Amino acid sequence: MIPSYAVKHDTSVMILEKEEEKLSPRILELRKKIHDSNYLDDAVQRIAFVISQKLIDNPEELMLRETED
């Protein structure tokens, strides 16, 4: 008897493979990159750099604002 988790996994893999046929090459490339720890580390560093620069250049731009209900 096949364990239920194996059946679910196989089904989800089949669905993902069918979906991949419809996706653009750019999306497929990004899907691979998100599993690369070096890519993710670099992306976080770039985001931190941009936010830091904005804080230095215009700190009011990133201030939290109260919203009216």
Helix fraction? Answer: over 70%
Q: What is the alpha-carbon Rg in Å?
A: 21 Å
The structure class reads: mainly alpha
How do the helices and strands follow one another from N- to C-terminus? HHH
Major sheet size, sense and barrel closure: none
The DSSP helix count reads 3
Shape: elongated
Through-space gap between termini: 57 Å
Name the beta content range.
under 5%
Low-confidence stretches: 1-7
Would you report the number of β strands?
0
Based on the structure, what is the oligomeric state of the protein chains? single chain
Query: What integer is the average pLDDT?
Result: 78
How are the elements arranged and paired?
Layout: H1 4-22, H2 25-33, H3 37-57
Q: Could you describe the 3D structure shown?
A:
This protein has helices at 4-22, 25-33, 37-57. The protein has 69 residues and is mostly helical. It is elongated, with a radius of gyration of 21 Å.
Keywords:
elongated, single chain, 3 helices
Summarize the structure.
This protein has 69 residues and is mostly helical. It has helices spanning 4-22, 25-33, 37-57.
